[in-house]
Amino acid sequence: MFTVRRCQPELVVPARPTPLQLQPLSDIDDQEGLRFHIPTIHFYRNHPSMAGKDPVEVIRKALAHTLVFYYPFAGRLSEGPDRKLTVDCNGEGVMFTEAHADATLDQLSQHLQPPFPCFQQLLDDAPLYQQITTTPLLLVQNFSIEKQVTRLKCGGFILAYYVHHSMCDAYGVSQFMSAWAEMARGATKPSIPPVWGREVLMARDPPRVTCNHFEYMQLVDDEEVPVDTFQDDMILRSFFFGPVQVAAIRRFLPHHLKRCATFDVIAACLWRCRTKALKIDADEDVCIMVTVNARARFNPPLPVGYYGNAFAYPTAVTTAGKLCGNSLEYAVELINKVKGKVTEEYMHSLADLLAIKGRYIPRTVRSFTLSDLRGFNVRQIDFGWGEAVYSGPAQAGLGPFPGLTFLVPSKNAKGEEGLLLPIWLPAQAMNTFARELDATLGFISSLL
């Protein structure tokens, strides 16, 4: 246990005047399933070259300069007719909280990963922000981004923030953070100029749905749809996949799949273990949704500086009996096939679907969503104190839905590079999941 002493929150405004305007979000941004704040956390150690410099002051000043270029983040989200989201670029600023903790990084944990020790002290306002953004009649929503910088007595610090998912995706967050870190290191402008350009992912006129979007097929007009939500006995654990673990899983695959993507291998293994752990009836449909960054799927590709949501959830659907009764090859091929469905036309079709049917949420019943964050390795973002010890999501889940998780670049306790997977499950299911995973990796590892 340790004590966190917070200063009074303050508003950080852009360092110079910025345009006062209304900026509509795209129809991809505007979907119901993104109307949540995502908590992200970074842990940095003390660095000798930064002796005498206060991380709070460095980061606060750099934030003000970054907001000159990313000025929509200093505004507010508001709802118009039909609940259409717009960013009111009014320059009101970002909420910023300074804090002090009487602990060192080593006291927090020898190996930082979700769940973090004393999480509620480090991100005390998380429940409040989640509730505000799920209130459907709220016209002016919470700050698009909120930050807290906590000094540690070892000289390190913790940077935590909540980004409203309607504003940007993982790529966009990474781009914003990189620009912010550049400013902290003395730059006068971002190396990648930000691009708003949300009109490229607005619905066409007239809208026309040309692709199958199984990720939204749970929704039926005028019917109440059940949602898998957090239960009282849910627990959070993280699992590490390094080269040895990935090689162990690959041993289950036939020769023609030996060199398939690491993501496909891990995703297939997790999907099967999770389905078995939840004891889903054999004839029930189960699905895995994989997030695909669509920026390079456009012709020409979206501008490098585009920081809006530009991803889709292509979905593989089967029954629990088929998934668990077939070999791992079956799941790998389903996942590999579905990733290739995301094209420029697929994204336009999705925007049209969302405009026609309203702000859908993706499937959340017997559903597992996996997001690959390897391409946005925010651990390497350097504010002057070097690489972070851990950077990434503070936990799994999104809003009330626990079935979303991430593959986060990380190191294990031995210093080996790999991927960390935080996952929520009911307590009994978590024990079964861990046993299934250990049996898979242990049995194969013994053959290496």
Automatic annotation (TrEMBL):
Keywords: Transferase
Coiled-coil region(s): none
Keyword Zinc: no
Pfam family, one: Transferase
Cited InterPro entries: CAT-like_dom_sf (IPR023213), Plant_acyltransferase (IPR050898)
GO terms for MF: transferase activity
Protein family (similarity comment): Belongs to the plant acyltransferase family.
Name of the molecule in the record: Benzyl alcohol O-benzoyltransferase
